[in-house]
Amino acid sequence: MIAPTRPVEQPRLILASGSPQRRAILTQLGVPFEVRVSGAAELTGEMPPRRLVVCNARRKAAAVMASEPAAARLPVLGVDTEVVLDGAVLGKPESAARALATLRELSNREHTVISGLAFRRGEDETVAVAETIVRFRALTDAEIAAYVDTGEWRDRAGGYAIQGRGALLVSEIRGDYLNVVGLPVAELVRVAPELF
């Protein structure tokens, strides 16, 4: 007997990001989407973190809108996530040595994970910002070195992935967990309820 096939859902969104974490979250939520990596260079200059993440999210969405014919029929979502400690954006460590230094800075302290969303429907754009407070345990140098040896720090804001082994570094979280993973779902539902 042949099993009935389910119709393939048409995408309701273009995700302007190559992030596997963002793809996984949208899949978990049941939102059919297409991925189009924007190629937009991320700003890293001197500006307040909340403004920075919104600017980067807007740049990503705008780049896809300008280059992707499907953007004429589907909304586009741009997202940017940063880790902020004492008001400074830490960025993504470019080397294992920088990852070690970053994690030492975060040890036994609170930091803020800030994400900006830009949701574009044609010429209309809605932006939002989400903030989550994360506290790390007091980490030993051996624990930090073992984590860096996993390679999980690569291409991660703040040098860790809370959805992976980086969960071992964390003692407390206040706010949207999925924001720390890379997509603030509570804000996405607020700005784009039609997706759900």
Explain this structure to me?
The longest helix is centred in the first third of the chain and has 19 residues, at 49-67. Strands 1, 2, 3, 4, 5, 6 and 7 form a seven-stranded mixed β-sheet that branches. The two termini are 34 Å apart. The chain has helices at residues 20-28, 49-67, 96-106, 141-149, 177-181, 185-191; strands spanning 13-15, 33-35, 76-85, 88-89, 110-121, 124-136, 170-174. 31% of the residues lie in helices and 24% in strands. It has six helices and seven strands, in the order E-H-E-H-E-E-H-E-E-H-E-H-H. Helix 3 (96-106) packs across helix 4. The protein is an alpha/beta fold and 196 residues long.
Q: Would you report the number of β strands?
A: 7
Q: What global shape is seen? A: elongated
- What is the gyration radius calculated from CA atoms? 18 Å
Detail the poorly predicted runs. none
Helix/strand structural class: alpha/beta
**Alpha-carbon distance between the termini?**
34 Å
Number of helices: 6
Q: Give average pLDDT, whole number.
A: 93
The topology string of helices and strands comes to: EHEHEEHEEHEHH
Helix content: 25-40%
* Strand residue percentage: 15-25%
Major sheet, described briefly? 7 strands, mixed
